[in-house]
Amino acid sequence: MNGQVHPSLELRDIVIRLDGKPLVALDGTVAPGETLTVMGPSGSGKSTLLAYLAGFLPPAFDACGRIVLGDRDITDLPAERRGIGLLFQDPLLFPHLSVAGNLRFGLPRHMPDKTTHVRRALADVGLSGYGERDPATLSGGQKARVALMRLLLSAPSAVLLDEPFSMLDTELRDEMRHLVFSHLRAAGLPSLLVTHDQKDTAATRGRVIELGG
Amino acid sequence: MLRLAPLLIVALLVGPILAGLVMALLPAFGYLPALGGERLSLAPWRELFAQPGLARSVGVSFVSGLVTTTVSLVVVLLFLTGVSGSRLDRWIRRMVAPLLSLPHAAAAFGLAFLIAPSGLLARLLSPELTGWERPPDLLIVQDPWGFALMLGLVIKEIPFLLLMSLAALPQLDPGRRVILARSLGYRPTTAWLKVVAPTLYPLIRLPVYAVIAYATSVVDVAMILGPTLPPTLAVSVLTWFHDPDLSRRFMASAGAVLQLGVTAAALVAWWCLERLVSWLGRHWIDRGARSCAELPLRQAGKSLILIATLTACAGLAGLALSSSAGFWRFPDLLPQGFTTVHWLRALPSLSGPVTATWIIAVSATLVALALTLAALENEQRSGRRPAQGKLLSALTLLYLPLIVPQIAFLFGLVVVMESLGTRPRLGLVIFGHLLFVLPYVFLSLSEAYRRFDPRWMQLALTLGSSRQSAFWRVRLPMMLAPVLTAAAVGLAVSIGLYLPTLLLGAGRIATVTTEAVSLAAGGNRRVIGVWALVQASLPLIGFIIAVGIPRLLWANRRGLQGAP
Amino acid sequence: MPIRLLAALPLATMLTSPLLAAPGSADWEAVLEEARGQTVYWHAWAGDTRINDYIDWVKRRLREKHEVELVHVKIDDTGSAVSRVLGERSAGNHDDGSIDLIWLNGENFAAMKENDLLFGPFAERLPNFALTYPELNPEVITDFTLPTEGYESPWGKAQITFYYDAAELVDEPPLSMAEILAWTEAHPGRFTYPRIPDFLGSTFLKQALIALTEDTDALYSPVAQSDFEAVTAPLWEYLDVLHPRLWRSGRQFPASGPEIRRLMADGELTLAFTFNPAEPAAAVAEFLLPESTRSYVLDGGTLGNVHFVAIPFNSPHKAGAMTVANFLLTPEAQARKQDLSVWGDPTVLDVARLDEEDRARFEQTTDNPALLAPEALVDTLPEPHPSWMTALQEAWQVRYVGR
């Protein structure tokens, strides 16, 4: 967002096993501003991979390999200290907070001038004046935009996208794709996209990996 | 710290119960050095079996437990077969929580006012229909067979089993199952009984066992509605424990152990009944009948549950009438005049017990809530879930205080506390209440907690929140409604507890429940009406707060309205 | 010999002081001083709201007058308090018991005294005890034939009093046990007595036994000294005939005296009895019973007794408890207790010997036709030895429970 240069996301010899059997194996680097797309049928371990990278691998699985952000090895860090942001299928706006409250949630705790950041972020996605609204009153597209801005305001070093457009209407999808990827590129963030949708891959202009099958 | 929570809960629930049982078992066989019992002997048992009317006490306890449970369960299942979105169904479902919060003693008083020969029902029909100019000499309340007792228990157990069933049903997706069965030609009620009921039962089995245990060993309801010559076993044991002749304590301990046996026997009998019904049920399903008494069953379910609900409400109305009645002769349906004098007289003596009730209930509930949240949060973080529906799991331990008869271990616990030099204090009573509040709080919160979408917490973490802060900033506010409901359940349980307050408080700590029950002997309906109404209203206040706070707090948050 | 442990020194020194302490004496001042700020747990039967309300008043007055905090521990059976003190002693609790004062008499007093569970003698040390003039009124120092020896302090009086609704029972009411039996035959289901072991019910058994047995003398010595079967045989014969004619055909009995009063109020009974001679009149005044209610005692008199308060040996607040016991004997407290609109329990003070001002407190202002004529209470039968009560209760339960 502020054009700051982020490190690349390195995935070194990652293997995730379930009951001893390898489920996912991955090795590679995602450059700053690049989006790596992971495709594959259900059960191929896409979601497990995302859960692992974000730090939520269920105890039934075990994994080896390293996750490195620039010069930081984050493999053993808890989720909240990895600096990896997530975008889900649903926008998942916290229902007990206002729109502005949702945006503030990701801001570092003692950051000065939070209000300005929030106002600027809302203006950025055409939602000026929506700050005190109840998220439940927003349209699907507005919610998706708030979720994106919340993610970016939390200043992650890398982003994981879990089929982020699959719940949107067809016409909204293209608009959101454009918005999300242009922001990720502008922010120079490395990102990993899990999807079924061929159109998503086109919008990323990046590499594609097929899992399983 | 969090990791210790489950262990703490188990130790807290199991420890006192085991200690209490041991201290009931030893004196039952003559061993209690403090009272001069130095050697093991069977003398307490011989004395126990020589008690007049013992067989009858045991019989009534055993039978009332089984009958109460059967009737309550059948009514609940029949109601559920026909449950639809009708206004009546919605009303009944809305009545579940307040009825559940109604203390047993208050419900029993209400019922007694309703069905007694001089009660509301007789007044309603007299003298026009019955010709009664004075109350008929009929043995209704406190009948020797325990019918009034069973009726009183059924009224209270129906909402409990209904709530437990309603909580378990969503995991079974009953709507789609019934549609599937109907597409195979089964009529709706038959379809429900064949495809939903068999899988629902295992999920509510432990609550059903808790009902059996409660009904076989209840003290306060039995004192109000139960037989008197002799009373039920649990009530007899209580009188023996309070006998000035201390040597009777040995016999009382034997009685407590016998009560444990009676409850166990009722559970075993129920288990056999379960086998039989499941065997018959399998055959019934296999035969493939598409329909069986559809309408009568559904109507029966609806009307029975309606009668039970209305009885409870009418009983409360009777309490309210009595508490403000002037001179009120039979067979006048309404008093000749209304007066506030009974309330004004009771007011000065109400404040102490009401305060004590709140202090105990709030403290026990807060501790229970903290432990429950800690255990559930630990479960989420470690990603481990206890096995559900299985008889031998950690969940069974939670049910321990609900399945072991109170009278069987509380006296032992008092002996343990006495020998530890613990004097009856408020803290001890709160601890005793915790034994019963904790399981209910845990059971009412755990489902909602486990169903809470894990992505909310993951989202909070990836936005940089620590686990601690995510719990306070995301989980707690979003789960405010179920947390407060669990708290209200905890309050209601604590407010209604009689025996633990009486025994651990050594009678020194008076709550509205102990006061109301001790007034029962006086038979003054005006005063009982006042106290029972106060007793009934306290947990209701809890529920109103539990429903009100989230509504108030989230008035501008549509996403949280009608949420979990 | 029992070891009596004393809570505090001033009391210990008192034991050696002269028996009678005059009001304002240094000893008594020391007790009051020590009592200040103490909380006294008084275990008292709480089945009647009128009594509870009276105790509430006592609580307020004690707070004002002596800065003693009184807690009424409401119990439905005095035996439970006795059992608690016994339990505490067997658990080695000799100086920090949970009970400071008990309302009791008869077999509970006998049981506690026999087991050395009482503190005392203390009654003679209460300044107001002198107002009972024990030398002229021996009933205030005798409890069910046993001398109290100062281990309990009198509080009130009771005498079996029958009452009926004159609008329904227009003829003369039954005046003896035999007449009651005949009356119930003509009016089945209209009379009953409280379930044993309720004390009023047990007293009815004793009343019947005194009237029916041939060997009345045997009742005034311990039951072990006589042939229980032979002495009580006429009683069981009587009850076997009576029970089918009682309320609910004798298959169920009311729990207590107040419940009997409630049954009278509901019109379920025509004839009833109470232990408090003023209760029917008080109930009429409160609109609980119809104005046509009348009271009487049986020909030849009815059982009467005095009830007391006692202090357990391990009470940690003995000074406070004595302050309460003394306050209960003040003309102010006794007159209020006797007031029909409060409780109606007869005083234990010798009213005729009080000074004029105090005597005036006891004058009944209401002329209530339901009130028993004072001369009726002259025929008071003394209570049998306490062991009879227990024996009768057990025998009754063996015969009639579980049938």
From TrEMBL, chain A:
UniProt domain ABC transporter: residue ranges: 9-211
PROSITE patterns noted in UniProt: ABC_TRANSPORTER_2
Alphabetical list of InterPro entries matching this protein: AAA+_ATPase, ABC_SmlMolc_Importer, ABC_transporter-like_ATP-bd, P-loop_NTPase
Keyword terms, alphabetized: ATP-binding, Nucleotide-binding, Transport
Gene Ontology MF: a single term: ATP hydrolysis activity
Cross-referenced Gene3D superfamilies: P-loop containing nucleotide triphosphate hydrolases (3.40.50.300)
Pfam family, one: ABC_tran
SUPFAM superfamilies: P-loop containing nucleoside triphosphate hydrolases (SSF52540)
Name the UniProt record assigns to this protein: ATP-binding cassette domain-containing protein
Organism lineage string: Bacteria, Pseudomonadati, Pseudomonadota, Gammaproteobacteria, Oceanospirillales
UniProtKB/TrEMBL annotation, chain B:
Topology within the bilayer: Multi-pass membrane protein
Subcellular location: Cell inner membrane; Cell membrane
Keyword Cell wall biogenesis/degradation appears in the UniProt entry: no
GO cellular component: plasma membrane
Cell inner membrane found in the keyword field: yes
InterPro entries to which the protein is assigned, alphabetical: MetI-like, MetI-like_sf
Keywords: Cell inner membrane, Cell membrane, Membrane, Transmembrane, Transmembrane helix, Transport
Ranges where the ABC transmembrane type-1 domain occurs: 54-269, 354-546
Chain ranges passing through the membrane: 54-80, 101-125, 145-169, 208-230, 250-273, 304-330, 350-376, 397-416, 428-449, 476-499, 528-549
Pfam entry (one): BPD_transp_1
Main location, first listed in the record: membrane
One BP term from GO: transmembrane transport
Sequence similarity: Belongs to the binding-protein-dependent transport system permease family.
Name assigned to this protein: ABC transporter permease subunit
Record organism: Billgrantia pellis
TrEMBL record, chain C:
Sequence intervals crossing the membrane: none
SUPFAM superfamilies with a match to the protein in the record: Periplasmic binding protein-like II
Gene3D superfamilies: Periplasmic binding protein-like II
Keyword field contains Amino-acid biosynthesis: no
Keywords of the record: Signal
Signal sequence, start to end: 1-21
InterPro entries (alphabetical): SBP, YnjB
Highest taxon of source: Bacteria
Keyword hit for NADP: no
PANTHER family: PROTEIN YNJB
Stored NCBIfam families: PRK11622.1
Record-given protein name: ABC transporter substrate-binding protein
Organism: Billgrantia pellis
